[in-house]
Design goal:
Blueprint lengths: L3 E4 L21 H13 L3 H14 L4 H36 L3 H14 L4 H36 L3 H14 L4 H36 L3 H14 L4 H32 L3 H14 L4 H106 L3 H11 L7 H61 L3 H13 L6 H15 L3 E2 L5 E3 L5 E4 L11 E9 L6 E9 L2 E10 L6 E5 L5 H5 L4 E6 L4 E10 L2
Parallel strand pairs: 1-8
Antiparallel strand pairs: 2-10, 3-10, 4-9, 5-8, 5-10, 6-7, 6-9
Length: 627
């Protein structure tokens, strides 16, 4: 037997079956309207809505029933909005309270109490926070002063004194994080300052050592790094100026010496001597420059003697080269004469060879003519043999093309003509079969296209249902979520997601059940109440509570109300009305009871069922939660 799940809507509104309520109900229009008016007067708008809807089933479009239903929906919406605003302030207050933001929390709790002044939970929370704020006010000034003084001292880099002020603030409010954070920050800045001093001293010492070794670039770099740490240090600034002057003299001397050394290495001894003399002008008495000048004098004398010998040798070499060139020209002239005689001999030999080649060509042409005809016949037979093989393999197009190749060799070949006619007949049969297959493919493609169009036309509607379902699922409003998933699934566009989500919600509700109030199925006799008791649900989870009923109509074909009430020892606190479906199949009704304020605010201990006018079999009465 197939089972159906029917969900509550409109923030705890009454639950109606998906197929509507049949007119064969025992209860009259007038009786339903009276019940609705009574519930409306008692401000039980959720139950009133169900009676007015059932009355409209008896008299569709009845003006009075529609008017009363509209008024009821407005009241339900107003109650829903008031409760949503109340819960929003309550949640905000709890969030601020958890963050120790007591003033903000108290403001939110007061806004919630303005809506429901007698709410015990919110009232207790507000009083607790007022006591905390009173206790804190006596210490706040001293705390603020200590923090402010600590911040000032920290800016002045008086770290030890700043830390003492923050420690004082910490003793006032040990649980506050700010003093701890400021102490940690002061210690961190103090450590960084000490590191800067150590680094500055290290850099200045390194600069002094480099200057002693005349590494002025390195020394200046170290001092610049030190001044980046403490830019206003006068001693470091003065030392930097001194090093810069020494560096300028040293750079000029080193540049001249480097050039002189380069010239010395390249044996430009005279130019090198001039540069070493220039170096002495910069650093008078420099031992290295003096030594190099003394070394250069004998080298310059030796270089002058070698130059005179080189010039004499070059002159003798030029004379010998001229004599050799005259001998080369005489040899080339003799070689040209001998080459002319050899060319005349080769021309005579080439003419004789040409005449012999023409005679051989004439002989070969005669032989080729005889062989050409034999080759043509062999080619025809080879093509026909290949074409016959392709035809045997039913490669008709390839075979036809091959037979047509015969005509290039033998235009009137009878065998090729007959075979081509045979193949044309076969191809015509194949084309007819392919056309039939093409028509069938087009028919299937059209059917698929129409199905795709149907799916695509429904997809926006499907997406809207799924989007709304996901939104309600995320908000843990499972009744509304399933209602949308069911609508999406009924569009039948081949998607499994809605059914998967419905199954997931069913499992969540089953996994999170709080109370299963009956163990066995029982029959509810008409108009006879059945009460179930339980311990109060923890207030932390009440807003996510659902009531789940499984019921079967024992009078199939008729629909009737079942009143579900809840309360405590002090009396009834609220409830709702279910419209029992006219089907004989068992159905599951899920109602979001957590949406009713009185379920949240009161310690309810019982649920009572009353079936009006007809009997019903109930197999499950359960309280669950969404998480």
């Amino acid at each position: 037997m197939r089972r159906y799940i029917i969900f509550g809507i409109l923030f705890g509104a009454s639950v109606l079956c998906s197929n509507g309520i049949q007119a064969q109900n025992n209860e009259s229009y007038e009786s339903l309207m009276r019940s609705g008016n009574t519930k409306f007067s008692d401000k039980d708008y959720i139950s009133a809505k169900t009676y007015y809807e059932m009355a409209l089933k008896r008299k569709p479009n009845d003006a009075e029933a529609k008017k009363k239903l509209d008024q009821t929906l407005v009241k339900i919406q107003e109650d829903s909005e008031r409760q949503e605003i109340f819960y929003a302030h309550l949640d905000a207050g709890d969030a601020f309270n958890a963050q120790n933001k007591y003033a903000e929390a108290l403001a939110e709790y007061d806004k919630a109490l303005a809506i429901f002044p007698d709410d015990k939970y919110v009232g207790t929370q507000a009083e607790t926070i007022r006591a905390i704020l009173k206790e804190r006010q006596d210490k706040q000034d001293a705390y603020d002063t200590a923090i402010a003084q600590g911040n000032t001292l920290l800016e002045e880099e008086n770290f030890d004194a700043a830390i003492m002020q923050f420690e004082t603030a910490k003793e006032i409010f040990p649980n506050d994080n700010l003093p701890k954070e400021r102490i940690a920050e002061a210690k961190r800045l103090q450590s960084l300052y000490n590191e800067k001093v150590t680094r500055f001293n290290t850099l200045t010492e390194e600069a002094n050592n480099l200057a002693l070794r005349k590494n002025f670039d390195g020394a200046i770099q170290k001092l610049n790094q030190a001044l980046e740490i403490f830019p206003d240090n006068v001693q470091a600034q003065q030392k930097l100026q001194e090093l810069q002057g020494s560096k300028d003299i040293n750079d000029r001397y080193n540049a001249i010496i480097a050039e002189a050394d380069r010239m010395y290495e390249s044996k430009s001894y005279k130019d090198a001597k001039v540069q070493y003399q220039n170096a002495l002008a910069v650093v008078a008495g420099d031992a290295y420059a003096t030594e190099m000048i003394a070394r250069l004098d004998p080298l310059i004398a030796q270089q002058d003697a070698e130059e005179a010998a080189r010039i004499a040798a070059e002159q003798e070499a030029a004379r010998l080269a001229a004599e050799a060139e005259a001998a080369r020209i005489a040899a080339e002239q003799e070689a040209a004469r001998l080459a002319a005689e050899e060319a005349a001999r080769k021309a005579a030999e080439e003419e004789a060879a040409r005449l012999a080649a023409e005679a051989e060509a004439a002989r070969l042409a005669a032989e080729a003519a005889a062989a050409a005809e034999a080759a043509r016949q062999a080619q025809i037979q080879d093509i026909l043999g290949t074409a016959n093989g392709l035809l045997a393999e039913e490669k008709y197009v390839e075979a036809k093309n091959k037979y047509q190749e015969v005509f290039a060799v033998d235009a009137g070949n009878a065998t090729a003509t007959a075979k081509i006619a045979e193949i044309d007949g076969i191809l015509a049969q194949i084309a007819a079969a392919e056309e039939a297959a093409r028509i069938e493919r087009e028919r299937l493609a059209e059917a698929e296209r129409l199905e795709r169009e149907r799916i695509e036309s429904l997809r926006p509607q499907y997406n809207a249902f799924v989007k709304e379902g996901d939104k309600q699922y995320a908000a843990k409003a499972f009744d509304k979520a399933v209602e949308n998933y069911v609508k999406a699934d009924e569009l039948n566009i081949g998607e499994t997601y809605p059914a998967e989500m419905i199954a997931r919600i069913n499992k969540i509700i089953e996994d999170n059940k709080l109370y299963e109030l009956n163990k066995d199925a029982f029959t509810m006799t008409a108009n006879t109440p059945r009460r179930f008791t339980f311990n109060p649900v923890d207030v932390a989870s009440r807003r996510s509570n659902y009531i789940i009923l499984k019921a079967r109509n024992l009078t199939p074909g008729k629909s009737f109300p079942m009143i579900v009430s809840f309360g405590s020892e002090s009396g009834k606190n609220g409830g709702f009305v279910l419209a029992i479906n006219e089907s004989e199949e068992e159905k599951t009704y899920i109602f979001r009871i957590g949406g009713q304020y009185k379920w949240f605010s009161e310690n309810n201990t019982w649920i009572e069922l009353i079936s009006e006018n007809d009997d019903v079999e109930v197999s499950l009465v359960m309280i669950s939660r969404s998480n």
